[in-house]
Design brief:
Layout: H1 3-18, H2 29-34, H3 48-68, H4 78-90, E1 96-97, H5 98-105, H6 112-125, E2 130-133, E3 152-155, H7 157-162, E4 170-173, E5 180-184, H8 191-195, E6 197-200, E7 205-208, H9 213-224, E8 240-242, E9 255-258, E10 260-265, E11 268-273, H10 280-292, E12 300-303, E13 311-314, H11 321-331, E14 335-338, E15 343-346, E16 349-352, H12 355-396, H13 409-420, H14 433-440, H15 444-448, H16 452-474, H17 476-491, E17 500-501, H18 517-520, E18 525-530, E19 535-537, E20 544-549, E21 554-558, E22 563-568, E23 573-574, E24 581-585, E25 592-598, E26 605-610, E27 620-622, E28 631-638, E29 646-651, E30 662-666, E31 680-683, E32 687-691
Parallel strand pairs: 8-17
Antiparallel strand pairs: 1-3, 2-3, 4-5, 6-7, 8-9, 9-14, 10-11, 11-13, 12-13, 15-16, 18-19, 18-20, 19-23, 21-22, 21-24, 22-27, 25-26, 25-28, 26-31, 29-30, 29-32
Helix pairs in contact: 4-5, 5-6, 9-12, 9-17, 12-16, 12-17
């Protein structure tokens, strides 16, 4: 090794010793939460939290705006909008295979055939925008549709009339930039309220219930007339609805829906309509589940559903139809509760609105779209009148002959322009060079066969149409109302209300009768008590039988130490050894309790008569002050206030100063008080026993 090389190595070692060592990297949660520190002073460092925040916000925005939540303007989710746009492209009056529609829609939708097919089936089952042919499934039974290659579809006349208007549609490029698709359709009817919608996005969800077609149009008319709006849901499955808490369809409202159940015989019920969101299969499963849990009793179920719902519920001979009906509502899907949550995309942001707000905005939007269509039509009519008038003057005044002497194209245009100048005042806009070029394209054959009378009639027709359109524009609200009434007349047949609204005789909304589950559950169990070991429950079948019960009941226990407790019934539970009383606790059937006890501190004997009011389950309630010398001498229970106990209090025979060793007492002398009162003093002497 040379001297220079040796020196170099020594210098390197010395520099390494003088340079402070880099700390060993450690995991620092705070540093991770704040982002990765810049490395080597690089200003272009990428922070993990920034990346996560940006990506998550992008994903959340995409799911909300592009997948799960419908748009307020046309009431459609993006996939539904693309399906309808694709069907309009393929529209020729005949049915198209659903597989073909799915394939064509994939030009616009980036998520493939499965999502498109599912969305199209759901849209077709609404029976509003798509005319279906083949097996499209059954919303009543939950049966799925046939494969897309076997079923067909086309747009309904209603959809063709209210959904599409290309001239007032805003277009955007598809996801791959090859095609154009509508940002929203210029829909002149609140499809969202007619079909309903449901979706779950990131951090929010939407649930809009379907409403009646005819009632929606009436509500829109009321909105245009500035009348109050009260629109209530209507479900394709029918049923009976309690809308007292609907709250105009705003978030926080609630609707209860019941199946329509008819009594066929004493032990036979027939379900003819089911609640929204259920199927005959799910409804039957809920009935069987309630039967397995001993909440109701059924013998068998028959499902005869085809075009209409028909579920036959056969009851045992011990259960009547009147008793089984409230139990079906209480423990099965024969009654469901729905919570509307009208979240829509409006002004490119999710908004929570009420159904009444959506009706008003839809009515205003319909009027605005009709105005735009009329303005476009007016412009087209004015253009037709303008050229028809130009053509008439050009031919009748033989202006076309002025161009014979011209040798240049500019001269020809100038000659026609000069010939039309005397008639400029009759036109509503200036005559442009494009107008002149169009006149010069008229063929000699048309000029030779020109009929002045027919031309005047055509111009007069344009003028009449222009006057009519201008009249509509001057009274847009009246025109919009007439349009909505025409929609109801053309498409309202067969769309009558299916769900009955619970109302009083004077038409006011009324709630359903309240059903207390503990009162309607089948009492098919028995409460047993093992006094020796201190256990109770409905599984102790070898012990003392107390009374019939159900699995929803509560049990009240009075211990010999004077502590009362209410417990949820179970198959086996500890209630304390040798309890005074164990029974089913029924809040609607209060008992009257007579009790005589000795206060351990004073030694006095007290009598009290009380009822049990409100209690908290599993909480211990002492009936007197706890003391080691306290003791209960007498305890009795009566069903009513009229019944009372008569007792004899026998004093201790060893008492020498007391002549009367027996005290007669009637609990009728006492007023009913609360369970915590001390009671009335019977005696301060030592007591031997109390007998009834």
């Amino acid at each position: 090794m040379s001297e220079d090389e040796s020196t170099t190595e020594e210098e390197k070692e010395q520099e390494a010793e003088e340079k402070p060592a880099e700390p060993t990297p450690r995991f620092d949660p705070e540093a991770l939460g704040q982002g990765l520190a810049e490395k080597n002073g690089d200003d272009d460092a990428i922070y993990v939290d920034d990346m996560y925040g940006d990506w998550f916000l992008d994903y959340a925005s995409y799911v909300i705006l592009e997948r799960a939540v419908p748009h307020a303007d046309d009431g459609l989710k993006p996939v539904q909008r693309r399906i309808l746009h694709s069907m309009k492209e393929l529209e020729d009056g005949r049915y198209n295979k659903v597989a073909n529609v799915i394939g064509n829609t994939m030009k616009y939708h980036p998520h493939g055939d499965a999502s498109i097919g599912d969305a199209m089936i759901q849209l077709g089952q609404k029976d509003l925008l798509i005319d279906t042919q083949g097996n499209w499934g059954n919303v009543l039974t939950g049966d799925s549709a046939a494969a897309p290659r076997y079923i067909e579809a086309r747009l309904t006349p209603f959809a063709l009339e209210v959904i599409f208007s290309p001239k007032v549609t805003t277009w955007a490029s598809s996801y791959d930039g090859r095609n154009k698709e509508p940002v929203t359709f210029p829909v002149k009817f609140p499809v969202l309220l007619a079909q309903g919608a449901e979706g779950i996005a990131v951090g929010l969800s939407t649930k809009i219930l379907p409403h009646n077609f005819i009632e929606i149009l009436d509500a829109m008319i009321d909105g245009l007339r500035k009348n109050p709006i009260s629109l209530l849901p209507d479900f394709p499955q029918g049923g009976i609805a309690d809308c007292t808490d609907y709250n105009g369809g705003a978030r926080g409202g609630r609707v209860r829906v019941r199946a329509r159940i008819e009594k066929v015989k004493k032990h036979l019920l027939k379900i003819t309509e089911i609640p929204f969101g259920t199927t005959t299969t799910s409804l039957i499963d809920s009935i069987l589940s309630a039967n397995d849990k001993n909440k109701i009793k059924i013998a068998k179920i028959e499902d005869n559903t085809a075009e209409f719902v028909e579920i036959m519920v056969h009851l045992p001979s011990t259960v009547s139809a009147e008793d089984a009906l409230p139990a079906l509502y209480a423990f099965t899907d024969c009654e469901v509760s729905l919570a509307p949550n009208a979240c829509v995309i409006q002004h490119n942001h999710p908004q929570f609105l009420s159904v009444n707000d959506l009706v008003k905005s839809s009515a205003d939007l319909t009027r605005e779209l009709l105005r735009q269509e009329l303005e476009i039509k007016l412009g087209e009519l004015q253009e037709k009148w303008h050229f028809a008038s130009l053509e008439k003057i050009f031919i009748e005044k033989r202006i076309y002959r002025d161009i014979e002497k011209e040798e240049t194209w500019e001269g020809v245009i100038s000659a026609v322009d000069k010939g039309l100048k005397p008639y400029i005042k009759i036109f509503k806009r200036a005559i442009t060079q494009d107008d002149i070029l169009r006149l010069l394209e008229i063929r000699i054959k048309r000029i030779s066969k020109f009929d002045s009378f027919r031309a005047d009639e055509q111009i007069k027709g344009f003028e009449d149409e222009i006057e009519e359109v201008e009249g509509h524009l001057a009274q847009m609200t009246r025109y919009a109302i007439r349009y909505l009434k025409e929609l109801k007349k053309k498409y309202g047949k067969g769309k009558e209300r299916k769900t009955e609204i619970s109302r009083s005789e004077d038409g006011e909304l009324v709630p359903f009768d309240k059903i207390v589950a503990s009162q309607v559950v089948v009492a098919n169990e028995t409460l047993y008590l093992n006094r020796k070991d201190g256990f109770a429950g409905y599984s102790l079948k070898k012990d003392e039988a107390i009374e019939k019960c159900s699995t929803l009941d509560d049990v009240i226990v009075f211990g010999k130490d004077g502590v009362m407790k209410v417990m949820k019934i179970a198959d086996k539970m500890f209630v304390g050894k040798s309890p005074l009383r164990v029974s089913v606790f029924r809040r609607d059937d209060p008992k009257v309790y007579n009790m005589v006890y000795r206060d351990g501190k004073s030694g006095r004997l007290y009598a009290k008569k009380f009822k049990i009011g409100g209690v908290t389950r599993d909480k211990e309630y002492p009936l007197f002050k706890t003391h080691s010398k306290s003791r209960i001498f007498f305890f009795a229970v009566h069903d009513s206030e009229k019944k009372n106990s008569n007792i004899l209090v026998h004093l201790d025979p060893e008492l020498k100063r007391v002549r009367e060793k027996v005290i007669e007492f009637d609990f009728a002398w006492l007023e009913i008080q609360g369970r915590g009162v001390k009671g009335s003093t019977l005696t301060a002497h030592k007591v031997d026993r109390v007998v009834n």
